[in-house]
TrEMBL record:
The lineage of its organism: Bacteria, Pseudomonadati, Bacteroidota, Sphingobacteriia, Sphingobacteriales. PANTHER family: BIFUNCTIONAL POLYMYXIN RESISTANCE PROTEIN ARNA, BLL5923 PROTEIN. Residues 4-211 form the NAD-dependent epimerase/dehydratase domain. InterPro entries: Epimerase_deHydtase, Lipid_A_modif_metabolic_enz, NAD(P)-bd_dom_sf. This is Nucleoside-diphosphate-sugar epimerase. Pfam families: Epimerase (PF01370). It comes from Pedobacter cryoconitis. SUPFAM superfamilies: NAD(P)-binding Rossmann-fold domains.
Length: 297
């Protein structure tokens, strides 16, 4: 009997979660290739009674260029969440647990070391703000309906053909135009998507808010070296920071088409890591090292 509803099962993380849970145990919901095909930010679906809801649908990995594109984050991440909750209420039976896939973007930090779950949520960008709103809506709804609430705040995700910044890094190395900046020493939190999928069931039963990382937080140079090794490419060259800074100033003038600007430069030369000790203590979270287990394909 299928007692889990998974939204976004055709996406990068959703597909890995579906494989881990077993398709025979899950009803999927999404815009395509799902048991329930619907645009969640436009319509309220009809869903069967479910024991566990895993809400993985979300808009990310895009830099909005105008107000309409910014609004799209709220349409998908906030309105879509509200419509899912309405669908649950319409099913006339509440689930035991609700798991929401969120992001460390809610903290709004561009630098920092081992940021904890209790840190203030200070995101100012559309993506981070929409995730904050969705988290609060879900927390309030679960509290009112006595449903176990789990929120997983994820950093950079690693796995086969990853999206976002890691995917862009792989593409640049494959094409031969990637450079480590200032030695690539900045450390970033990252986690294997497969490890996230493996902890879902335990997290759903326990509830709570958790950062999930691989516990090591590799540097850009470590990541680029491992990616280059897998692609049989030479070790990426290093670009001194003063050259990158000059290029970033030009990027500020050129605008969105530029590969780098001062904001991007600050991000890729600053440490930004998150503390997963709460997950280790409560969920017995034992992540694998991304550098040792990440496979590009």
């Amino acid at each position: 009997m299928r007692d889990i509803l998974l939204t976004g099962a055709s996406g990068f993380l959703g597909s890995i979660i579906l494989k881990e849970l077993g398709a025979e145990n899950v009803i999927t919901l999404g815009r395509s290739k799902s048991d329930i095909v619907i645009n969640l930010d436009l319509d309220v679906p009809v869903i069967p009674v479910m024991k566990t809801i895993i809400h993985c649908i979300g808009k990310a990995h895009a830099v909005p260029k105008n107000a309409l594109q910014k609004q799209e984050f709220f349409n998908v991440n906030v309105t879509g969440t509200l419509n899912l909750l309405r669908a649950i209420e319409n099913s006339n039976s509440l689930p035991k647990s609700f798991v929401f896939i969120s992001s460390v973007a809610v903290y709004g930090k561009e630098s920092g070391l081992l940021i904890q779950e209790e840190s203030p949520l200070e995101a100012k960008d559309a993506y981070g703000l929409s995730k904050i709103q969705a988290e609060r809506i879900i927390q309030q709804w679960c509290s009112q309906n006595n449903v176990i609430c789990t929120i997983l705040r994820l950093p950079l995700l690693a796995g086969p053909n990853p999206p976002g910044n890691l995917g862009n890094m792989i593409s640049a190395i494959r094409r031969g135009y990637y450079f480590d900046i200032s030695g690539g020493t900045a450390k970033k939190s990252i986690v294997l998507a497969k490890d996230v999928a493996r902890i879902i069931k335990k997290a759903a039963d326990r509830g709570g808010i958790y950062n999930l990382t691989d516990g090591y937080h590799p540097s850009f140079s470590e990541l680029s070296l491992e990616i280059s090794r897998q692609l049989n490419k030479r070790k990426p060259l290093n670009m001194p920071k003063f050259i990158a800074y000059i290029l970033s100033l030009a990027g500020d003038v050129i605008g969105g088409a530029a590969p780098i600007n001062t904001k991007k430069l600050n991000k890729i030369t600053s440490d930004l890591t998150f503390d997963d000790s709460k997950a280790k203590q409560i969920l017995d979270w034992t992540p694998n090292s991304v550098l040792s287990n990440f496979q590009i394909k």
